[in-house]
Design brief:
Number of strands: 12
CATH architecture: Orthogonal Bundle
Bound molecules: protoporphyrin IX containing FE
Largest sheet: 5 strands, mixed
CATH superfamily: Cytochrome P450
Oligomer: single chain
Number of domains: 1
Structural class: alpha+beta
Strand content: 5-15%
Distance between the termini: 63 Å
Length: about 475
């Protein structure tokens, strides 16, 4: 549909059911639940830094992420907040650089390339479970974070002792926490708004000035580092990260480090057209990006899966029986016999999508759901809301892994399930996560039974990801 045949932006419905922007920031869960009940396909609210459009139907999601993807880039806020840590890595970059990097990195994440990591995933889960004693009270969210962190350490850097005492892990946590806080901080929101103004102004001035404005906007993707203790702390953490990653790169270039982890694969990746490789700085940005994007998301999905299994004994029994039917440590070849555990993980990502909301910014006027969105419009997409819509998920609050039986999955509209996003910028680690999910769940179920301390479970806390508020406490009843 061309933008001439569509209704103007001014006629977009205002989503009055949604709380105002301040509530959205301060009471996000309330706002997300309100969003899940919105029945308009598209609408707008007044955000902290200007108007924000929400798309709330699978068709509109598909338009933004897939069919009209070329008219959007990622919204600047998260890109800016993550920039000091993830630089120009795959998650934060745009344009030609992103395209080249995606082409270079995609082969590394194909299922046949990552299958060797399956045993390492099982091993990391087993090693965490081996530290538990019978009847020990565990915070499941903490345990799955330990495991996902260990998987990241092993597969990215071939590090076995990637633990909380490790300075690399500490530095990553400091930097991530800082980025999370920045993403909701007013100075950064205002910087993002100013950046958009510069880009829009560039369309109305002679070419020379337009180039200058584009350069200024490009520079503004780096957030202001306002002096203070937290900035000093994050700068120290970033120095640690740079030093450690630099050392690991040197080792691999010398041939003395591991040659089979993701870091070495990034170092040897070649562009199939021009034979080019990545600079060390680009490899540093990618490896930290993969760590950031990969571990907390998976850890959160795993924690919710265990909580919901405990609340649903039938589901628990089926998943446990499937896990116990396998012999020795789980390997890649066991995956076809872990289909129920995979469905449990997918259902967990439906009800509790770790990336519960993410944004795009229009880079040209674009028609979505019959309305013209002018260049610069910020569009929010919310898997949490759409994946709880009763039209696509009857009795949406019920945890039912069989919603992901292949025939039911295939019958659902495109855009009704997108925990990994969709389209060209879909998660590059989705196969990796969908392998790690069932392997870790089955390994843990083989080792112990879990009993929730609070049988009602925990409610979500929408922060950087959709984490369980205050943790998920359960007792581990070890098998012999
Ligand atoms: C359950 C686990 C995971 C979930 C729910 C998840 C979700 C997502 C989502 C929603 C996006 C798109 C965000 C946006 O467009 O704004 C994304 C992108 C990305 N994810 Fe994941 N992710 C998971 C695991 C992983 C893993 C294990 C890795 C790496 C090993 C990874 C690496 C990435 C990267 C590099 C991108 C950026 C891709 C690009 O823009 O080209 N993710 N992820």
């Amino acid at each position: 549909m061309s933008t001439e045949q569509t209704k103007p932006y001014s006629s977009l419905p205002v989503l009055t059911q949604l709380p105002n922007a301040r509530v959205f920031r301060d009471e996000r869960l309330k706002a997300l639940d309100a969003l899940a009940s919105v029945r308009d396909e598209i609408g707008k609210i007044e955000g902290l830094a200007g108007q924000v459009v929400f798309v709330t139907s699978p068709e509109a999601v598909h338009e933004v992420l897939v069919s009209q993807a070329r008219c959007f880039e990622k919204s600047p806020v998260l890109r800016m907040a993550l920039h000091p840590l993830a630089g120009e890595g795959l998650f934060t970059s745009e344009g030609a650089l992103w395209k080249r990097q995606r082409k270079l990195m995609s082969p590394i994440f194909q299922p046949n390339q990552i299958k060797q990591f399956a045993s390492q995933m099982a091993d990391c889960a087993q090693r965490a479970a081996d530290t538990w004693s019978h009847n020990q009270m565990l915070d499941i969210a903490h345990e799955t974070t330990r495991i996902a962190m260990a998987v990241a350490g092993k597969t990215l850097f071939d590090i076995d002792t990637f633990s909380e005492s490790d300075e690399l892990e500490h530095a990553l946590t400091v930097a991530l926490t800082w980025s999370g806080a920045q993403a909701a901080a007013l100075p950064l929101l205002l910087q993002a708004r100013l950046r958009t103004r510069l880009l829009l102004a560039a369309d109305h001035v002679p070419a020379f000035f337009a180039d200058k404005l584009h350069e200024a906007a490009q520079a503004m993707i780096k957030p202001l580092m306002i002096p203070g203790e937290s900035t000093r702390e994050v700068k120290r953490a970033l120095e640690v990260l740079d030093r450690r990653v630099e050392r690991m790169i040197e080792e691999r270039r010398r041939g003395s480090g591991s040659q089979n982890d993701l870091l070495s694969r990034l170092l040897s990746a070649r562009d199939e057209d021009d034979g080019g490789t990545m600079t060390d700085k680009q490899v540093r940005d990618e490896v930290l990006t993969l760590f950031v994007a990969g571990h907390e998301t998976t850890a959160t999905g795993l924690a919710w899966a265990i909580m919901e299994m405990c609340k649903n004994p039938d589901v628990y029994t089926k998943a446990k029986e499937e896990a116990l039917a396998l012999g020795g440590p789980i390997t890649y070849d066991d995956l076809p016999r872990l289909t129920y555990n995979l469905r449990v993980f997918k259902e967990s990502l439906r009800l509790y999508p770790p990336v519960f909301m993410f944004g795009r910014q229009a880079v040209a006027d674009v028609a979505i759901s019959g309305y013209t969105l002018p260049k610069g419009t910020i569009v929010m997409l919310c898997p949490y809301a759409i994946q709880r819509h009763p039209d696509f998920y009857p009795d949406p609050e019920r945890f039912d892994p069989d919603r992901f039986l292949p025939e039911l999955e295939a019958a659902r509209p495109r855009g009704a399930y997108f925990p990994f996003s969709l389209g060209p910028r879909t998660c590059i680690g989705n196969h990796f996560a969908l392998m790690e999910g069932p392997i870790v769940l089955a390994t843990l179920l083989r080792h112990a039974d879990f009993e929730l301390v609070n049988p009602r479970g925990t409610e979500p806390d929408p922060g950087a990801t959709l984490r369980p508020k205050g943790g998920i406490f359960a007792r581990a009843k070890l098998r012999n």
